[in-house]
Automatic annotation (TrEMBL):
Sequence ranges assigned to domain TonB-dependent receptor plug in this UniProt record: 115-233
Domain TonB-dependent receptor-like beta-barrel intervals: 420-763
Topology term for the membrane: Multi-pass membrane protein
Main location: membrane
Protein name as catalogued: TonB-dependent receptor
UniProt keyword list: Cell outer membrane, Membrane, Receptor, Signal, TonB box, Transmembrane, Transmembrane beta strand, Transport
Cell cycle in keyword set: no
UniProt signal peptide: 1-22
Cited Pfam families: CarbopepD_reg_2 (PF13715), Plug (PF07715), TonB_dep_Rec_b-barrel (PF00593)
Keyword Membrane carried by entry: yes
Subcellular location(s) per record: Cell outer membrane
Family to which this protein belongs: Belongs to the TonB-dependent receptor family.
Length: 1009
C-alpha cells in the first residue's frame, strides 16, 4: 500500500493539472447550409448550461466553451446538430435541411404537429411576417399573406373594426368572424362600442409578442373547436424564452400618415356657376315661376352660405376636406428579453404604440406588457405561466352616419368659411360645422385587457402525458362622451354619457396526450380531454344633461340624470373532445377528431351537438418510384371532411323572455321574446382536397386546394302573426354554400453567396351562394342589401342606372320588370318609381391574393407585398348627395361640373343640373362601382451594420429600416375615396362618408444584445 502512495499522489497531481488546463477557451467557426451558403441567426448553445450565441450575417460565431462540452446548433428549417469540443478551437458546421420547411412545427389546437405529416389545411405566419409593420392592429399585417383569408378594415379610423373572412361568409345573421385563441385561451371578441361604429377588441394584442399565427381553414383542423369553428380559427402563439444565451431586443420606429386618396370638389367659383345654372334649369320643371325668381332665390342662398363674405367678386374657398383630414403619425417602441436554461425559460416584453389618425380628432395610444415563464421540475413534470396586460386609449369621433363626423364636412360648400373674422368657429353653415364638435366635445374609449394562463403537464408513462390549463381573459372597457353647450344639436346645456363593460372569460381544460412510435414505422398521436368555458358580462351606463358650465365634463356635473341602463348576462360551453393521428412509414397519414359541445345559448332539446372530422394524406414522394427523383422532392395528396358550428348569436335567443316596463310610473312586466327549445347552432359541413408539392429540394414549393362548405340551419328571426304577442321567433331555417380554389407558390429564385431572392404568391377564389331562406325563400331586404336564393350573401340591391337622355339631360333607369318569358324589360324611364331594383353587385371579392418578394444583398434586405382583390363592388350611399347634379346645396364632386349635360346632343353620364329636381339621384348603379384593385400593401428596406463594427460594444445586431403601408393603389374605382372604405354605421359593401385607409411611412431602429 505504501508503495502505491506515490502513484496516487501522481494521479491526483495529473488530474489537477488536467482540470486546470481544461478551463474555458474561445471557440469559433462558420455555419453553412448544404450549398455552402452562410446561415445568419443560427442558435448555438452549450448543452447543459445557459451559455450560447448566434451566428452573424456571414454565418460566423464565437463563444467560450470547455473541452468535452457539447455545442448544439439549431436553426428553423434545418436539423439540429451537435459538436463536441476537443483540443481544437475552430469548428465549421454544415446544417442539413429538414425537407425545407416541411418539418416545421404547426400548432393544431391542444397540440402540435409536423407540417410534413399534416393532413389539414392550415396556413402559418411567423413573427417575421408581421414585424415592423406600422399598424395599430396585428391583423392588418397579415393582409395578402394567407391564402383563403380576406382581411378588410371598415375605414381609416385607428380603432376601426376589421372584417376577417376565412373561405367566405358562412352566416347571414350570426357572427362571421373567426374564433381567436391566444396561447390556448379563446378570446372574448365582441364589439362593445356605444357610438354606432365598431371597435376592434383585439387592438390589445401587440405584434412584438407574437411568435406565430396559425389559421385553421378546413373543418378537419377547426372541428376540434366544435361549435365555434365554422368561421375558421386563428391560433396566436406568443414568444417564449429559448435555451442558451439571454437576448435583449429593442425596436423603435416613427412615421407619418396621410390618406391613400382624396377627392376633387367644387371650388367656390365653380359652385356658384353650377348652382345658378341648376336653379335656372329648375324653372322648366315648375320649381320657380321664372328665371329672375330662380336667380334671386339662389343668390339668397349664396348670401347665407358666404356668411357676409364677398362671394360675388372674391368667393371664399374653404378646403373642408383638408380640415377633415390631418397629418397622422405612428410611433412604436418595444423591447423584449428572452433566455433560459435547460430547465427554465423566460420571456419578458413591453411595447407602446401611439397613432394619430388621418381623420381629425382620432387617435390611439396602447401600452402592453407580457411575461411568459416555464420550468421543468423534472424530466417528466413541466409547469408554466403566461400573463399579459394592455391598456388602449382611443380618442374617437362620431360614426359615419352623423353630421358631426369630420368626413361629412365635405358636404359644406367651399363658399362657407370655417372660421369667422374674429377667429371663432362659423356656426351658420349648411350642415353642422364639425369643428364645433371637435373643439367642445370628446369621446374617449379605454380598453383594458388581462390575459393569464397557468399550465402544467406530467408524463405518466413514456409518451403519455396529462395536461392541465386554467386561463382567464378580462376585457374591461369604459366610454366617456361629453358634448358641451356649443356643440351642434345641443339644447340641454351640455350632455355627458358614461358606460362600462366588464367581460370575464374563464377556461378550464384537462386532457391526456399520447405520442409513440412503434417499430420505426407506426407513429400514433392522440389527445382526449374536456373543457369548460364560462363568460360573464356586466354593462352599465348613465346619461346626464343640464351642466352649469362646459368646465364640468363628467356625469356628476349634470343637473339631471336622464337615462340609465344596466344588465348582467352569462353563457357557458362544456366540451368533450378527442383526436387521433396515425402515420405509417412517413407516407400514409390518417386523422380523426370529434368534439361534443354543450352551450347554454341553445334550446333545451338541442343543447348538445357533435362535430366530427376525418382526414387522410399520402406522401407520394416517399414511394419507391419517386423517392430518388432529382426533380420532385415532395408530393402529398390530402383530403378532409368535417362539421363545425356557429354559436355567435347572443345569449338568450332560445328562451322565453320578459322585461320590465313602466306605465304611469308604476312597474310592470311584459312578454318580450318567445322561446324555441329546438333552437341550435348553424352547422357547416366542409370538404377539402389538396395537393402539396416541392421541386428541386424545395426551391419551388406550393399547394393547390379545392373546398366546399355547406352551412345549414341558418339562424333567422322568422315573423309571427300579430296575435301571437311577438313579432318574430328565432329559428334554424336556411342554407348557403361557399366553394373555391386556393393556390400557393413559394420559390427560392436566387441563393447565391451574397444575394438571395425568394417569392411567395397566393391567390384564392370564393363563390358564395344562398341555397334556401325562410318563408318559402322570400327575399329579405335590409337597406341596400338583399338575401336572395341563388345570389351571394348581402348582395347589393339597387336600381339600374341607364345613363343620360342626350335629348333633354334626364337621368334614366332601366325598368327591369319581368317579361312573360322571364327576361327583364330593358326599356328606360326617368321616373325611379317606375323602375325595379336588381341584384347589381357582390360585396365580397371572388378573387383575392398576395405576392411577397424578399431580397437580401450583403447587409441589405428588402421586401414588399402586393395585395389584390377582384369581383367585389361598393355602393356609395353618400353619392346621391355628393354627385347629385346640384339637386340640393351640398358641395359636389368635380365631375358634376366638368361632365354635366348642358345642351341637346351631349353624350355623358352626368345628368343636367336641376335644383330640387332629383335628376338621376335615386339609389342606383350610378353610385355603385367595382372595387378591383392591386395595392402595394407594405414594403421594407433595411440595413444591418456588420458584426465586426458592433461586437466591441457588446451588440449582436443593429439594423435600421424604412417601411411603408398602403404605398400605391392601382384601381379604376372612383365611386368614393377608396375600394376598401366602407361605412361603420351599417350596411355591407356600402360606404357613406367613409374615410380611406392611411398611407404610412416609417423609419426604425432594431438593436439586439
Amino acid at each position: 500500500m505504501k508503495n502505491k502512495l506515490p502513484f496516487y499522489l501522481g494521479f491526483i497531481l495529473m488530474l489537477t493539472c488536467s482540470l486546470a488546463f481544461s478551463q474555458t477557451k474561445s471557440v469559433s467557426g462558420t455555419v453553412t447550409d448544404e450549398q455552402g451558403m452562410p446561415l445568419p441567426g443560427v442558435n448555438i448553445a452549450v448543452q447543459g448550461t445557459n451559455s450560447g450565441t448566434q451566428t452573424d450575417f456571414d454565418g460566423n460565431y464565437t463563444l467560450n466553451a470547455e473541452e468535452g462540452s457539447v455545442l448544439v446548433f439549431s436553426y428553423l428549417g434545418f436539423k439540429n446538430q451537435q459538436v463536441t469540443v476537443g483540443t481544437g478551437s475552430s469548428y465549421n458546421v454544415t446544417l442539413q435541411t429538414s425537407a425545407d420547411e416541411l418539418d416545421e412545427i404547426v400548432v393544431v389546437g391542444y397540440g402540435t404537429q409536423s407540417k410534413r405529416t399534416l393532413t389539414d389545411n392550415i396556413v402559418k405566419l411567423s413573427a417575421e411576417d408581421i414585424d415592423e409593420v406600422p399598424v395599430s392592429n396585428f391583423q392588418s399585417a397579415l393582409v395578402g399573406k394567407a391564402a383563403g383569408v380576406q382581411i378588410t378594415q371598415n375605414n381609416g379610423k385607428v380603432e376601426g373594426g376589421l372584417n376577417i373572412r376565412v373561405r367566405g361568409a358562412t352566416s347571414i345573421t350570426a357572427g362571421t368572424q373567426p374564433l381567436y385563441v391566444l396561447d390556448g385561451i379563446p378570446l372574448y371578441n365582441a364589439n362593445e362600442s356605444s357610438n354606432g361604429a365598431p371597435t376592434n377588441p383585439l387592438l390589445s394584442i401587440s405584434p412584438n409578442e407574437i411568435e406565430s399565427i396559425e389559421v385553421l381553414k378546413d373543418a378537419s383542423s377547426a372541428a376540434i373547436y366544435g361549435a365555434r369553428g365554422a368561421n375558421g380559427v386563428v391560433i396566436i402563439t406568443t414568444k417564449t424564452g429559448k435555451e442558451g444565451k439571454a437576448e435583449f431586443s429593442v425596436n423603435i420606429s416613427h412615421g407619418f400618415s396621410e390618406p391613400t386618396n382624396t377627392r376633387e370638389w367644387l371650388s367656390g367659383t365653380q359652385y356658384i356657376e353650377l348652382f345658378r345654372e341648376a336653379a335656372i334649369n329648375a324653372v322648366d320643371y315648375g320649381e320657380f315661376a321664372d328665371q329672375a325668381e330662380a336667380v334671386d332665390y339662389i343668390e339668397g342662398i349664396f348670401d347665407f352660405l358666404a356668411a357676409d363674405t364677398d362671394w360675388r367678386t372674391n368667393p371664399v374657398n374653404t378646403d373642408w376636406q383638408a380640415l377633415a383630414f390631418q397629418n397622422g403619425s405612428v410611433s412604436d417602441a418595444d423591447f423584449s428579453m428572452s433566455g433560459g436554461t435547460a430547465k427554465t425559460s423566460i420571456f419578458f416584453a413591453g411595447s407602446m404604440n401611439e397613432t394619430k389618425g388621418i381623420v381629425r380628432g382620432n387617435a390611439l395610444r396602447r401600452f402592453n406588457g407580457r411575461t411568459n415563464i416555464s420550468h421543468k421540475f423534472s424530466e417528466r413534470f413541466n409547469v408554466g405561466m403566461n400573463l399579459s396586460f394592455s391598456r388602449t386609449d382611443i380618442d374617437r369621433i362620431a360614426n359615419d352616419n352623423q353630421f358631426t363626423t369630420p368626413l361629412q364636412a365635405i358636404a359644406q360648400p367651399q363658399l362657407s368659411p370655417a372660421y369667422l373674422e374674429d377667429g371663432s368657429i362659423n356656426e351658420n353653415t349648411l350642415y353642422a360645422n364639425f369643428l364645433l364638435e371637435d373643439k367642445f366635445a370628446y369621446y374617449k374609449t379605454i380598453l383594458r385587457r388581462v390575459n393569464g394562463r397557468a399550465f402544467g403537464d406530467y408524463e405518466i408513462l413514456d409518451g403519455l402525458k396529462i395536461n392541465g390549463n386554467f386561463a382567464y381573459d378580462l376585457f374591461y372597457q369604459t366610454e366617456d362622451n361629453f358634448r358641451g353647450s356649443q356643440t351642434p344639436f345641443q339644447s340641454t346645456n351640455g350632455e355627458a354619457f358614461a358606460s362600462s363593460v366588464n367581460a370575464e372569460n374563464y377556461i378550464v381544460s384537462g386532457f391526456l396526450s399520447y405520442d409513440k412510435t412503434f417499430g420505426d414505422v407506426h407513429t400514433i398521436s392522440a389527445v382526449a380531454g374536456t373543457e369548460l368555458n364560462e363568460t360573464t358580462r356586466r354593462f352599465e351606463s348613465v346619461t346626464a344633461n343640464q351642466f352649469p358650465s362646459d368646465d364640468f365634463q363628467t356625469v356628476s356635473g349634470g343637473a339631471q340624470i336622464v337615462a340609465g341602463e344596466g344588465s348582467e348576462t352569462a353563457n357557458a360551453f362544456y366540451s368533450l373532445f378527442a383526436r387521433a393521428t396515425y402515420d405509417y412509414a412517413g407516407k400514409y397519414l390518417l386523422k380523426a377528431s370529434i368534439r361534443r359541445d354543450g352551450s347554454s345559448r341553445f334550446g333545451a332539446n338541442e343543447r348538445y351537438g357533435i362535430f366530427p372530422a376525418f382526414s387522410a394524406g399520402w406522401i407520394i414522394s416517399e414511394e419507391g418510384f419517386l423517392k430518388d427523383s432529382d426533380v420532385l422532392s415532395y408530393l402529398k395528396l390530402r383530403g378532409s371532411w368535417g362539421k363545425t358550428g356557429n354559436a355567435d348569436i347572443g345569449n338568450f335567443p332560445s328562451r322565453y323572455l320578459f322585461e320590465s316596463v313602466s306605465y304611469n310610473q308604476k312597474a310592470g312586466i311584459s312578454f318580450s321574446q318567445p322561446g324555441n327549445p329546438d333552437l341550435t347552432w348553424e352547422t357547416t359541413t366542409q370538404t377539402d382536397i389538396g395537393l402539396e408539392f416541392g421541386f428541386f429540394n424545395g426551391r419551388i414549393s406550393g399547394e393547390i386546394d379545392y373546398y366546399h362548405k355547406n352551412t345549414d340551419g341558418l339562424l333567422f328571426d322568422v315573423p309571427l302573426v300579430p296575435s301571437s304577442g311577438a313579432l318574430s321567433i328565432s329559428s334554424n331555417i336556411g342554407e348557403l354554400e361557399n366553394k373555391g380554389w386556393e393556390f400557393i407558390l413559394n420559390t427560392d429564385n436566387i441563393q447565391a453567396e451574397n444575394f438571395q431572392w425568394s417569392t411567395s404568391f397566393n391567390i384564392s377564389n370564393n363563390k358564395n351562394e344562398i341555397l334556401s331562406l325562410p318563408n318559402d325563400n322570400n327575399d329579405i331586404i335590409t337597406g341596400r342589401n338583399i338575401q336572395r336564393v341563388g345570389e351571394p350573401v348581402n348582395s347589393l340591391y339597387v336600381l339600374e342606372f341607364a345613363g343620360v337622355d342626350p335629348a333633354n339631360g334626364d337621368g334614366l333607369y332601366y325598368v327591369n320588370s319581368v317579361n312573360p318569358d322571364g327576361s327583364l324589360n330593358k326599356e328606360t324611364t326617368n321616373n325611379p318609381n317606375a323602375a325595379n331594383r336588381i341584384v347589381a353587385g357582390n360585396p365580397f371579392p371572388e378573387w383575392y391574393g398576395g405576392l411577397t418578394n424578399t431580397f437580401n444583398f450583403l447587409n441589405v434586405d428588402f421586401s414588399f407585398t402586393f395585395q389584390g382583390e377582384f369581383g367585389a363592388s361598393i355602393f356609395n350611399d353618400g353619392g346621391r348627395f355628393q354627385s347629385a347634379s346640384a339637386d340640393y346645396f351640398d358641395n359636389q364632386t368635380l365631375d358634376q361640373y366638368t361632365d354635366r349635360w348642358r345642351q341637346p346632343g351631349d353624350i355623358t353620364d352626368v345628368p343636367q343640373a336641376r335644383l330640387f329636381g332629383g335628376n338621376g339621384t335615386a339609389r342606383s348603379t350610378r353610385y355603385l362601382d367595382r372595387t378591383d384593385f392591386v395595392r402595394l400593401r407594405n414594403a421594407t428596406l433595411g440595413y444591418t451594420i456588420p458584426q465586426e463594427a458592433i461586437e466591441r460594444y457588446g451588440l449582436s445586431k443593429v439594423r435600421v429600416y424604412v417601411t411603408g403601408v398602403n404605398l400605391l393603389t392601382f384601381t379604376d374605382f372612383d365611386a368614393d375615396y377608396d375600394p376598401e372604405s366602407t361605412s361603420d354605421a351599417g350596411g355591407v359593401g356600402v360606404s357613406f362618408y367613409s374615410a380611406p385607409p392611411a398611407r404610412t411611412f416609417s423609419m426604425g431602429l432594431n438593436v439586439k444584445f
